[in-house]
Amino acid sequence: MILNVPNIKHADSKNFFLMAGPCAIEGEDIALRIAEKIVTITDRLNIPYIFKGSYKKANRSRIDSFTGIGDEKALKILAKISKEFGVPTVTDIHESSEAVMAAEYVDVLQIPAFLCRQTDLLIAAAKTGKTVNIKKGQFLSASSMQFAVDKVKDSGNNNVILTDRGNTFGYQDLIVDYRNIPEMRSFGVPVVMDCTHSLQQPNQSSGVTGGKPALIETISKAAIAVGADGLFIETHPEPENAKSDGANMLHLTLLEQLLEKLIKVRQAVL
Question: What's the pLDDT at 205?
């Protein structure tokens, strides 16, 4: 599938593309350090890369959970990363009023899974002209995501990405149905596998989401094997100290070796 994101490098390679970075923008120094490391890796491996970082975390379980360092401050860090490293960036938006503001700083607007049916939010994102990455709701079938795609396209924006992040399985687990990837690709848009959030263990009694990061390699290999166009991986140099979703993030030191393995899978199935 054609990925229409400005300034993305290595677009002519036959590799999958990568959305990767920390869950949340925690500060300028650490965000720049993570971006520099991933850009170095993806440039060497010729992987198209989009830096990911949430400027605000609006969907926390507990009121005392980290939500951000300030909207404008975090968005300016995303813009600085794009300028310094020459890569596009992606961030979440949660309300229609955020779309225009965030679009001034980033290249891709991401719609969280729980909000993928919010018509006003999808329309607002579409009307910015930015590429819109819609995460499939944990509660939805792949086929139902056609309507989310239609909402963006009918609003005059054909630049849509769909991301699978697993389906709810009971109350405290998720399961990945790999039939979702080819089904959503049939809509004519690039499809991404979120290899970290699909391993979350939500609704823990502590109010802090758990995860199984040891299975990120398994999830990502399978996704590439069945035709995913891209991968979404949250990564951090100290997941145990990350301010958001550390339990399911990949340690940054493990990213390069994982991507090397995934390139081999990609080459085998082309």
Answer: 46
